[in-house]
UniProtKB/TrEMBL annotation:
Top-rank taxon, per record: Bacteria
GO terms of molecular function: metal ion binding; oxygen carrier activity
Name used for this protein in its record: Hemerythrin-like domain-containing protein
The Hemerythrin-like domain, residue ranges: 10-126
Entry annotated with the keyword Transferase: no
Stored Gene3D superfamilies: Hemerythrin-like
Pfam families found in the cross-reference section: Hemerythrin (PF01814)
Family: Belongs to the hemerythrin family.
Organism (species): Motiliproteus coralliicola
Amino acid sequence: MIELGPALHTGYTEIDNQHQRLFDLFNQLKTPASERAELLPTSQVLQQISEYIDAHFSFEEQWMREVGYPDYDAHQREHAAFVEQNLQFLREYHFGGSLTEEDIARYLERWLVQHISGTDMKVVQYLQSSD
């Protein structure tokens, strides 16, 4: 199971809460099917992840525009590439591709951890240096 550890805290409560919600959704994919009878089917979890990613990225991008973050365009391009990758996962999963829930969860987790610890933390550093 993955969690938002202290190294991934941005110090901005709403952003941290949204990141934790993404990890919670990813964890549903990592739970073996035999243990998640009460949880949503994988296709619904993937759809929820896709919808939540859209909402989170919209929130984060609005926040960056409001604070005048100078690397907004590069950050937004990362978001767009991730959204496209997630859509590819949805298509492949729905059409019987070879991806497993674990494959998808592993990719999502790795990407989000790298994005938070790198790209998102650059926004935090910018804000801290602007104070």
